[in-house]
Amino acid sequence: MFPGLTVSLDLTSQIEDSADRVKLSRIILDANDEKTQQFWNNNLANNQYTYVSLKAVLAYNGISYSEDIEEIQLPLVSNTIAGSFQIMYDPEIINGNTWYTFDTLNYATINENGENIG
What we know:
Layout: E1 21-29, H1 34-44, H2 51-60, E2 65-73, E3 81-87, E4 92-94, E5 97-99, E6 102-109
Antiparallel strand pairs: 1-2, 3-6, 4-5
């Protein structure tokens, strides 16, 4: 195992937006076993497998492995403020910056479902 190894995963459209954790399962092969090394080089290194298909191909070929399972807490981010405003005049450009003049600014605190809570 390489404890300093970092892998980034894009979970967009893979899990619900409201998910607060994911279960991560790592399949670990024995790098000291010559048969496993050859199988890695010939079959796994340049191919992509799903979790299920990787386990199936390893079992079919008699390659032993261990599995490390971890639950990871996700940083849940939700909008806590909602509001509306009305622009009074066309925007002005002053020193390269666009300025808007608001008439009314209304906002409220909302919960994770978008419901007004105050």
